[in-house]
Amino acid sequence: MAQDHDSGPAHHQGGAHDHGHHHGPVQGHGHGDSHAHTHMDFAQMLPLLVQEAELFTPAYVQAAEWLREQRPDPGLIVDAGSGPGVISGLFAEKFPGARIVAVDGAEPLLVEARARAERLGFADRFGTIEAELSDGIGDLEYPADLLWASRSLHHVGDQRAALTGFVRSLAPGGTLALLEGGLPTRFLPRDTGIGRPGLEARIDAVHDEWFTRMRTELPGSVAETEDWPALLTSVGLRHTATRTFLLDLPAPVSDEARAFAVTALTRRREGLAEGLDAEDLATLDRLLDPDDKASVHHRPDVFVLTAMTVYVGVKPE
């Protein structure tokens, strides 16, 4: 499976909802074409998932260090909906004594995760399981002490059932860290000097409609109020903490951040075209035209700003 948001970072490392990083056409993580289809092929999104997760690493580092304060010495960490394993690698670095298992439904992404583990030198304590999160997280050698699910749960039709499966895989006293919610990613000032001000807010409104359709079209879809602490409690966990992590890459941005802004806005243009009016589409076309000095390729005022919220629940001893 994957973050985009949908910009997200996976599937997976990605995306938040509220509706920030779902893996959708809007935030980088979805398979959105001109008809705004809600099916996503995450394996095709591999370069984007890696690009986003690496750019968003400062926020993930903060989240991992915060989790280490609460759970200092886990023996087994599971990255549920791991995508290409960028965050798995971060956990391997921050928890040098832990074994890491990446779980994803897309084998090509797990191949990339294993290659990354080799490159970064933690392959001896890294494993992968190919499994759809709707079916749980497959067969673990032993229960997880820390289970991380970053913007993967909202791609499962019955989120409560998936959480119940996560809890079954946790050791007594084990910790579940769920990254959902947060805020949409922003790249541009409200008034860019071209088109009507407020373009990104209007894109977000169209994306929210897309996200709702995506959820209802998932197999076994169950409507759920997005009160994540209440959901954690409903599956038998004790909600112990919530914290939001800011990613703030102010202008002038790096080439990598600028490239990500182009990628994300291009996905929005492609995936949400049917919901945007002609003026906003024309504005997006200018913003994405590398020959236009007012485009994201050249503007000095491009930034990357987003917020990702992590909810923590602990399984009773």
Automatic annotation (TrEMBL):
<dbReference type="Pfam" id="PF08242">
    <property type="entry name" value="Methyltransf_12"/>
</dbReference>
<dbReference type="InterPro" id="IPR029063">
    <property type="entry name" value="SAM-dependent_MTases_sf"/>
</dbReference>
<keyword id="KW-0489">Methyltransferase</keyword>
<dbReference type="GO" id="GO:0032259">
    <property type="term" value="P:methylation"/>
</dbReference>
<dbReference type="GO" id="GO:0008168">
    <property type="term" value="F:methyltransferase activity"/>
</dbReference>
<protein>
    <submittedName>
        <fullName>SAM-dependent methyltransferase</fullName>
    </submittedName>
</protein>
<keyword id="KW-0808">Transferase</keyword>
<feature type="region of interest" description="Disordered">
    <location>
        <begin position="1"/>
        <end position="37"/>
    </location>
</feature>
<dbReference type="InterPro" id="IPR013217">
    <property type="entry name" value="Methyltransf_12"/>
</dbReference>
<feature type="domain" description="Methyltransferase type 12">
    <location>
        <begin position="78"/>
        <end position="176"/>
    </location>
</feature>
